[in-house]
Amino acid sequence: MRRLLCLLCVIACFCLAGCRSQELSQQELQFVFRCRAAVTSGELSFFCTVDRQGSGVISYETEQIGYHWTGNGFSQTCAGLEARSDDCPLPQDCFAVRLNAFLEDASRPGSLTPAEEGSFTGSVKGEAYTVQADPLTGRLRGLSVPGLSLSVIFYAAGTE
């Protein structure tokens, strides 16, 4: 019985050694998610909660303020107060505005080029960016835009 078990283990090892992991495709990336994120934007570093429900629907919650795009409007929240508007009044260099642009572009079919395993590259208005994802699940791990000094590390829900 022991010999049979050893033989089966050896055969399994040969079979597994011949298997190759399949490349992750852009279609397998998960762009609908809720997680914690560590954001570095210029000289600022902070944590926030990111809740992306799809194209144009995303929220960022920091300890002080929240930014919310609903697909047909924008709101900011702070200390229990909310201000709504049709258009986003945030400056274009705000981390949330920038991150939105890159996540929207990355989620658009055909916008990314595969790089190394689990990484993809793209460009928005001449700014190159890289998206890193878990090769097994497609869950986003990070997004970096070196030209804008923007980097985000996405953590699985409940971790930091």
Q: H/E element string? A: HEEEEEEHEEEEE
**Strand residues, percent:** 35-45%
Question: Within the largest sheet, what's the order of strands?
Answer: 6-5-4-3-2-1-11-10-9-8-7
Mean pLDDT: 87
Shape: globular
What is the percent of helical residues? 10-25%
The count of DSSP E runs of length 2 or more, i.e. the number of strands, is: 11
Low-confidence stretches: 4-10, 13-20
Tally of alpha and pi helices: 2
What is the quaternary state of this protein? Answer: single chain
Q: What does the main sheet amount to?
A: 11 strands, antiparallel
Quickly describe the structure.
The protein is an alpha+beta fold.
List the helices and strands and how they pair.
Blueprint: H1 2-18, E1 33-41, E2 44-54, E3 57-61, E4 66-70, E5 74-78, E6 81-85, H2 95-107, E7 113-114, E8 119-124, E9 127-133, E10 140-145, E11 150-155
Antiparallel strand pairs: 1-2, 1-11, 2-3, 3-4, 4-5, 5-6, 7-8, 8-9, 9-10, 10-11
Describe what you observe in this structure:
- The chain has 160 residues and is α+β, with helices and mostly antiparallel strands.
- It contains two helices and eleven strands.
- It has helices spanning 2-18, 95-107, and strands at residues 33-41, 44-54, 57-61, 66-70, 74-78, 81-85, 113-114, 119-124, 127-133, 140-145, 150-155.
- It has an eleven-stranded antiparallel β-sheet, with helices on one face.
- The relative contact order is 0.18.
